[in-house]
Design goal:
This protein has a domain at about 75-150: Orthogonal Bundle (T-fold). About 30% of the residues lie in helices and about 20% in strands. It has eight helices and 15 strands.
Length: about 300
């Protein structure tokens, strides 16, 4: 699982025309020479970027930012009044927001599928280290639409490693409902709604040195244990299996969670989980910088 400072700054190659960052008034979009509109800012502690093709995108971007703000009020670990923070302090929450239930349920499903490599209850390890292991364990988190609770005192949840993907999906869905079908959303994870306005794929890379991956529809997420200090919830040790994992999936939430969990799993276990969760592609980079892909090319 990942610390708050974890960020995968994705490089977006938007085409031959220059796409420049907005340095003033980041809540306002402007038309760019490429006919794309770009907004840059921050969301959920991450660099955020929206690329849209129409000049009337300003109101849509304002709606997206309002949705991000609303979801941060539910899912943020570092807002003391968020639903997640209240839950961590009290150990139980009646009538939880449905968004929190959705993300926690997805986190528990991923925990089951990965035998605990992904575990939302890893939070105590960040403040106390391996001695907190007795209070970590996804089976101690109970989630229903009516109530969420911990089974023992001192447990806590972090949604780093899955919440940014969920918020990315929510913003993408909002834009789709407004008729956008050639959009790229990057809120820490990247989600494409169709191709670029010229019909070509978006080209997305984990960093400026990585080979771009073409993306026409769906999501891409990358995790780097060295940069993120991804901790194994089962042992408290920092992940060492891979130096980088990139996953392509239909949704950003699944891609986000998988890229985190697979940093802790061997290739053979990863292949089964990727297939079960509908991933289309994944790349694993070892400590020597050697890449291996799934499915095997």
């Amino acid at each position: 699982m990942t610390a708050l400072t974890r960020r995968r700054f994705l490089t977006i190659a938007a085409g031959t025309a220059a796409v420049t960052a907005l340095t003033e008034f980041p809540s306002v979009a402007k038309a760019l020479p490429s006919a794309l509109i770009e907004w840059r800012g921050a969301a959920l502690g991450a660099e955020a970027r929206l690329l849209l093709p129409r000049k009337d995108a300003g109101p849509a971007i304002d709606l997206c930012l309002a949705e991000v703000e609303r979801l941060e009020g539910i899912l943020s670990l570092y807002r003391p009044d968020s639903a997640l923070s209240v839950f961590n302090r009290t150990g139980a929450l009646s009538a939880p927001p449905p968004e929190l239930v959705t993300v926690l349920s997805a986190a528990l499903d991923l925990a089951r599928r990965t035998d605990g490599a992904f575990d939302p209850t890893v939070q105590p390890l960040w403040s106390e280290g391996p001695e907190a292991l007795p209070r970590v364990g996804w089976r101690g988190l109970e989630v229903t639409g009516q109530r969420i609770r911990f089974s023992r005192p001192g447990m806590a949840v972090t949604l780093n490693g899955i919440a940014q993907g969920y918020v990315t999906d929510r913003v993408a869905d909002l834009l789709r409902r407004r008729g956008y079908d050639r959009v790229l959303v990057n809120l820490g994870e990247t989600r494409a709604l169709g191709p670029r306005p010229d019909g070509l794929p978006w080209r997305v890379a984990a960093d400026p040195t990585a080979t771009p991956r073409e993306l026409m529809e769906g999501a891409l997420a990358t995790s780097e244990p060295a940069a993120s200090a991804i901790v194994d919830p089962r042992t408290g040790a920092v992940a060492q299996s891979w130096s980088r994992v990139t996953v392509a999936c239909p949704t950003a939430m699944v891609a986000d969670g998988l890229s985190t969990a697979l940093c802790l799993l061997p290739h053979d276990s990863a292949a089964r989980i990727l297939a079960d969760l509908g991933a289309s592609w994944a790349q694993f980079t070892d400590a020597a910088g050697t890449n291996s892909s799934w499915p095997h090319s």
